Amino acid sequence: MAKKQKKSQTGGTPATVALTGAGVAFTLHAYDHDPSHPSYGDEAAEAMGVSPERVFKTLVAEVDGELTVAVVPVAGSLDLKALAAAVSGKRAVMADPAAAERTTGYVRGGISPLGQRKRLRTVLDDSASAHATICVSAGRRGLEVELSPADLAALTSATLAPIGRE
Predict the structure, then answer these.
(1) 96 alpha-carbon distance from chain centroid
(2) What's phi and psi for 143, nearest 5 deg?
(3) Is 1 contained in some domain?
(4) Between residues 4 and 36, the one the model is more confident about
(5) How many domains does the chain have?
(6) CA separation for the pair 134, 138 (Å, rounded)
(7) CATH of the domain at 42
(8) 117: left (phi > 0), else alpha (psi -120 to 50), else beta?
(9) What is the pLDDT of residues 96-154, one digit of tens each?
(10) Which of 53, 69, 73, 124 would you label with 81, given CA atoms 20 to 30 Å apart?
């Protein structure tokens, strides 16, 4: 099976282990990460030759003091007010990067919505539904996983909401 072959070639991450364990179909895309690139998400889209509307970044925010994951297209940005509203919160701010890394178990630029050390409440931008597959970080810089938005939402228990803005 292709996904297991690709997993073993890349050594696996908690995200790919979670996908494999759940029996979800996915494709890994590895590329050489350039530390000087100004945007992890744009770099991923360019390296894979995928439209930035199909490549989603994983951001960690605090909504009323609770860490929350927001998954939005790299072509846009996160609307913090919309994120707060999506989880019935009052105020959202970006989380401290060190807290995000410590809580998820991933480094900035490689945070995946899957296989996190501590499972966080997750909101997926509803634009994901317009695509058969989307790409998200597979748990390290230079490694993306392509899967259906429905599978991502199911595995993360995500709420779908309009949290991205162009």
Answers:
(1) 17
(2) -140, 120
(3) no
(4) 36
(5) 1
(6) 12
(7) 3.90.960.10
(8) alpha
(9) 999 999 999 999 889 999 999 999 999 999 999 999 999 999 999 899 999 999 999 99
(10) 53
Within a domain: 28 = yes
Say whether pLDDT at 10 is over 50. no
- Distance CA(103)–CA(105), nearest Å, equals 6
Give me the residues paired with residue 144 across strands.
Answer: 29, 137
Token pair, residue 57, equals 């970044």
Q: Is residue 119 part of a domain?
A: yes
18/117 Cα distance (integer angstroms): 11
As given in the structure block, the two tokens for residue 122 are 């997750």
Is residue 120 a contact partner of residue 69, using CB atoms and an 8 Å limit? Answer: yes
Q: Supply 72's token pair.
A: 């939005």
Structural domain including 51 reads: 14-165
Any domain includes 9? no
Average predicted confidence (pLDDT) for the chain: 90
Is pLDDT of 46 > 90?
no
Distance CA 164, CA 166 (A): 7
The pLDDT assigned to 41 comes to 80
**φ, ψ at 31 (rounded to 5°):** -150, 160
Closest by CA to 112, choosing from 127, 134, 90, 96, is 134
